[in-house]
Hints:
Helix content: 25-40%
Amino acid sequence: MEINCFYFGKYAYTFVPWQIEEDILRIKSTGAHSITLNVIEQDYKAAKENIVLVISVAQKHGLKVYVLPDGWCNVLGGVSQFPSVFAVKNMDSCLKNSESKHLITNLGPVASILEKRTIEYLKKKLKECFEGFAFDGILWYQCKLHQSFISKEKYEQFFSGLHFYIKDHFGSEKTIDWYHTDSTSLNTNNIKGLRYITHDIQILDHRNYTKESTESLTLEIENLFRKKPKMFCYFDYPANVELPEKSMTVIRKTLQNK
């Protein structure tokens, strides 16, 4: 089983290089094999050097580094809750309702996966991730389905096409090809190229944990391990936790004993 740490947002804004190395060594001490970074659309220009450094430090210490496309085109979900700059700048490629008015969500317009411009933009972002950043793999985390506009079959074809693009241009060793199915009705059997599906990956989502929630962390991890996942993911110091040090100590000691 691969242990993966969600290392989200630590490379944005204030950036202290020696703290990154400390973090990576601490994460590795839990028994982690890899980390995942969330990347928003703007990061290739706004945080490129920071992300490159994080990847190089992690890989130097033997950890693989995966990318989680965060909110791209307002089609893919994520954790940052940033609107899509691409969608805002390309309204003619976005979804419209029956009255021919643009569909506006809480994060703005949604690019259509049926539009060539959307597909080409996503391929451009993938190229940046694998050639510019040198990520080891990709984790798809949720897709915002709008089935009143686009059929499930089209979404399944959409992901299959992106998988083939990654494998054809960057090699199959670059892909993890996991699709998070908990929040969608897509049939993952119809998405070509997936390696991990359904319960192959278990996520310990301990964001926003109270003191009471922290007390049950060990049992929660044990229950996830009983499902025998191929990959187990946890967050590194996630936001809004009442007892952050205690929760991370519980996670580290539990994983070290596995």
